[in-house]
Amino acid sequence: MTRTAAFFDLDRTLIRGSANFPLAVAAFRAGYVPPRDLLRDAVQAVAFVLRGADDARSAALRERILRAVAGHRSEDVIALGSRIVPGLTAAVLPEARAALDRHAAAGHDRIIVSASPVELVSALADALGLEAAVGTRSEIVEGRYTGRLAGPFCYGQGKVAEITRLAAERGYDLAASTAYSDAVSDLPFLEAVGHPVAVNPDRELRAVAGTRGWQVLEVAGPRIARRRTRLLPA
What domain range is 206 assigned to? Predict the structure, then answer.
């Protein structure tokens, strides 16, 4: 029996900015990262809100996260992420919550798909009452992070690999499923499902969505205005 899923990118899709900046602040306060890295992350957070992600910034963020957690106990890093989850839960955009509720009413599993650490996105998914989350997995040996990846970086084609794996495990029909994202870097992710939705898309994704007739949700100020009224596929 096949099942249907709704896959949600996190940054600039479920929430307005980046989940990794509050994580960086928490890591700084815990002594995991030096001030210069926090300052760099602050600058990148502003750029992300204004322009979205790109390959170079995403790769640099991955390396900083891996470097920051290396040598630390997994339970301590999990606790660190859990501290910021209430703030992220409160930051979920109203229309994103509405989309989550509509998919729940339709009987769809709701899954966060993010380049952020899987520990963080899993805790957020639990707090929101969602069915699952996939994120970037770091290698753990004898209870401590090694500073290496334990799977694909959950970005670009890495997101496709993760949702394909999850679909095989849970029996999701990707052709009947929906994916939400804001950035052209997630084009492979959006193309992997039958019902892609561009949320406050960057210029490149907006062009693709317009050419292909994809649904577009516009984020403007504190509220999301819907360009098209139907959030769920017929």
Answer: 5-226
